[in-house]
Amino acid sequence: LRESLERAKGRGGPSVGQWLEFPGYTLARTVASLGEDWVLIDCEHGNIDDHNMYLQVGAISSSGVSPIVRVPAGDPWIIKRVLDAGAHAIMVPMCETKEQAENIVKAAKYPSDNWPQGLRGAGAMFAPAAFNQTGRDYVLRANDNVMVCVQIESRKAVENVEEIAKVEGIDMLFIGPNDLASSMGYFAFDHASIPEVQQATEKILQATLDAGKYAGHFALSAEIAAQRYKQGFHFVNCGADIIAVTSWMSTEMGKLKGL
Ligand code: 3PY
């Protein structure tokens, strides 16, 4: 994951991934065979419970792709479970303040010399396999290897974005454009055409780049993802499993209607 983000920083192509809303090992295994840098398991909005999160993290990591888990919230016990399953990165929705960002980092780091404030409990049973490491190596390197990404997706988060971006241990800021537009009083799906949302997007991107962090943006197609990469973002998805299924099926079905 980090290599693909560095490649994007050097402008050698975006760090690209897919987004899973459906549960299941075979889905994750199939999607992870397509050549992505990462696959995200969406436990915030997706139909993916704890058991399926474990299955999908295993399926994706054993395909040589980085599993990222979007947690439903930034509570330490949820972050611990996801990291213990073997997530290479966590994405935490709705981070609005520096204090919240600091608490998320604490939950993701083992107490150690360089992270004395870390709160993560020892006992990662399955994570070493997801990194192809021994248990000992995993624990020694997890604070450096596991990446922490927070979502900036509200008016309050935009106000505090410079402070959030500077928090040590936050690797990436990711814009959720639908929630961002919604929190600003607009209809979520109109985000791309709303000047105020796009100004906020520029502010978030600039604060992220100034802090030397990676910037990500949600996208529902390769065209939108490419535009965001050209704008300066490093990390983009290009749709989601449910979009692929519904748009392909309805397009094909539509061709037969009215025959
Ligand atoms: C948003 O667009 O608000 C997201 O969080 C993407 O899932």
Topology readout:
Elements: H1 2-9, E1 15-20, H2 25-31, E2 38-42, H3 50-61, E3 66-70, H4 76-85, E4 89-92, H5 98-108, H6 127-130, H7 135-145, E5 147-152, H8 155-159, H9 161-166, E6 172-175, H10 177-183, H11 195-210, E7 214-217, H12 222-231, E8 235-237, H13 241-256
Parallel strand pairs: 1-2, 1-8, 2-3, 3-4, 4-5, 5-6, 6-7, 7-8
Protein architecture, described:
This protein has a single domain (2-256), classed as Phosphoenolpyruvate-binding domains (TIM Barrel). Helices cover 47% and strands 14% of the residues. The chain contains 13 helices and 8 strands. It has 259 residues and is of the alpha/beta class. It has an 8-stranded parallel beta barrel, surrounded by 7 helices. It starts with a helix and ends with a helix. α2 runs parallel beside α3. The mean pLDDT is 97. The protein has helices spanning 2-9, 25-31, 50-61, 76-85, 98-108, 127-130, 135-145, 155-159, 161-166, 177-183, 195-210, 222-231, 241-256; strands at 15-20, 38-42, 66-70, 89-92, 147-152, 172-175, 214-217, 235-237. The protein binds 3-hydroxypyruvic acid (3PY). 3-hydroxypyruvic acid (3PY) is lined by residues 151, 153, 176-179, 218.
